[in-house]
Specification:
Blueprint: E1 2-4, E2 9-13, H1 14-18, E3 22-23, H2 26-41, E4 45-49, E5 55-56, H3 58-66, H4 68-71, H5 74-80, E6 81-84, H6 90-106, H7 108-119
Parallel strand pairs: 2-4, 3-5, 4-6
Antiparallel strand pairs: 1-2
Helix pairs in contact: 2-3, 3-6
């Protein structure tokens, strides 16, 4: 799952985390998130390689990367996290996931309150 790239950077191969070429399960996205977060908490630089990946859905990317923006400062992610080898149009989807995560976590209380108001207070519990 994690392979040394340099002394200061590890490479996480997504195909090894998900066990194939499809990134469609949020559970797999959560496993990728956990691997990334563990390395970042250890103050390592992380390169995430999407080499050999054929299909990626937004829910996978939300689970894998979106929640990182609630756990780490934006500048930490910009300096310590690199995405590599992502196929074609999926970079655009990843960019949207990141933009949405930044917006959500910058205004989390307002979003959560709006959601509670929409679905009712009991839905949040």
């Amino acid at each position: 799952m994690m392979n040394p790239a340099t002394r200061d950077e590890i490479v996480i191969r997504v195909s090894e985390v998900v066990g194939g070429e499809l990134c469609i399960a949020t559970d797999d996205g959560q496993r990728l998130h956990d691997a990334i977060a563990t390395a970042l908490h250890a103050q390592q630089k992380v390169a995430v390689s999407f080499s050999n990946i054929e299909t990626i859905i937004p829910a996978f990317l939300n689970a894998a990367t979106g929640q990182l923006y609630g756990e780490f400062p934006d500048n930490c992610l910009q300096e310590s996290l690199t995405i590599r080898d992502i196929p074609g149009g999926y970079l655009n989807i990843l960019s949207h996931v990141i933009a949405n995560a930044r917006t959500y976590f910058a205004h989390r209380e307002q979003f959560d309150e709006a959601w509670r108001n929409e679905v009712g207070e009991d839905a949040a519990e």
